[in-house]
Amino acid sequence: MPPSSGPKPRLSTIRPPSPPTERLEKREFKRLQQGLVERWLALHEIESVPRDVVVVPSLSLDGFQLGNIPGITHYEERMLFTLGLLRHPRARLVYVTSQPLHPAILDYYLALIGGIPTAHARERLTLVSCYDTSPRALTEKVLERPRLVQRIRDAIDQSRAHMTVFTVSDKERSLAVRLGIPLYGVDPDLLSLGTKSGSRKVFRKVGIPLANGAEDLASEREIAEAVANIWEAEPSLRRAVVKLDQGFSGEGNAILPLGRRLARVAPSKAPHRARVDAVLEALPGMRFMAPNETYVRFKAQFEDIGGVVEAFLEGEVKRSPSAQLRINPRGELQAMSTHDQLLGGVDGQTYLGCKFPADFGYRMQIQNDALAVGKELKRRGCVGRIAVDFVTVQNPDGSWSRFAIEINLRMTGTTHPIMTLKLLNDGDYDAKLGLYVTRRGEPRYYVSTDNLIKPHYQGLLPDDVLDIAAVHELHYQPWKETGVVFHLLGAVSQFGKIGLTAIGSSPDEADAFYERAQAALDAETVDEQP
């Protein structure tokens, strides 16, 4: 990308430098971060000097078993919306993945970029792969490969580049330092604010409703004490939730039913100590959200990274909305979207997808609550994308009660669909209306999923999915600004798993596109099974 200032060393002569001590790494990271504002601002000015962006869509989550999610390495495709930055004619991208992207996937996303020739955009895109499909964080794989790190360095101008990631951890800080460029994301030293325990403290600090519970727990005995205390405060409680401080899509959660086996130690029937002992004995029988999870492993993770216990929020009509924010490098706080999350799995704890926007009955309330959280996080020095999750329960009079559940100091499953919509038509979110509005002034709605998974989809290639969508007239149509956009295409052949975002000019049209897409895939594959 940058003009050569002299001969570069042959890769065979590269000797990886010794990693700096943690103290020196943190000091160098803070120095690099001082250049982030200028680089980020220039990237958003069409007439600016060239800017380089390194995209590392890594799921770096401590204590979480990435192998529990089928096709996890293909989740790295969810940041392909960043190719929209190539709309700026002097921007260059380096996109890093665990395994090479299928050519059809790349062609598909480049074709979605409006306003610039595909060949021009492709020329300014560099793809880098680890050729490693193990279910581990991408950044970890990159750091293990010093020659690959050097290839990324060779592809950028360090004086004008920055890195953007899906999640931030110590690993991303290490990579930023090795590349010699700033990172658009929260400082890892602040990540405790986004743990389950840290979230509860922030909610309490800003005075928004949260579920009854306890945080900063680290042992079986502390879990049992917390469950007993919550049960005594709410004698009608039917279930308690035990959560690891770090989790993903609900996979770090477990449910403890309080009926039957524990009925004999209900608050009206037994003293506190007997209740604690009975709960302690019942913990191995919890229902785990993660497939193949065991109590031995869950207990070890809980003791290692800590967690919380909360009352399970019941309700005949219950939703799980979220609000998305951004604190940009200049320190400006913005509301970016609201969604109703679509949940499934055991006790409805696993993220499957989302609908945009969240229900009108609580949309602005959760946005305002999230902005209060954002102001506190901004005061603490956070930068980057943030999501605040809630549970809402409808009251008999039709109003909604809301409870803040979790802060995510990272991109989430609700980030890529709204950013894909922006890639498609360059509209924007109107925070006063709680709606996404195109450049023509028209609102757009969508349904998105990461988990359209069926056995009969196995064996489809990405090209096949795109062909089916074309035959059934499902593809996004720029002249109408409606249709279906696919993601996770790399996971379909092996895992039978597809992601999609169905966009409509009304909620009903978005739902119809979603159903049509699923019906088309089913119709084309269900009779092909051996």
Structure description:
It contains 16 helices and 21 strands. Helix 1 crosses helix 7. Mean pLDDT is 90; it is low at 1-7. Strands 11, 12, 13, 14, 15, 16, 17, 18, 19, 20 and 21 form an eleven-stranded antiparallel sheet that branches. Strands 3-2-1-4-5 form a five-stranded parallel sheet. A five-stranded antiparallel sheet has the order 6-10-7-8-9, sandwiched between helices. It folds into three domains: 11-184, no CATH class; 212-311, no CATH class; 318-528, ATP-grasp fold, B domain (D-amino Acid Aminotransferase, Chain A, domain 1, 2-Layer Sandwich). The chain has helices spanning 22-33, 36-43, 103-112, 118-123, 138-143, 146-154, 170-179, 196-206, 220-233, 272-282, 295-305, 363-380, 415-425, 462-471, 492-495, 507-525; strands at 51-56, 91-97, 125-129, 161-165, 183-184, 213-217, 239-244, 253-257, 287-288, 307-311, 318-319, 321-327, 333-344, 350-356, 384-394, 400-408, 428-430, 435-437, 443-453, 483-487, 497-504. By secondary structure, it is α+β, with helices and mostly antiparallel strands.
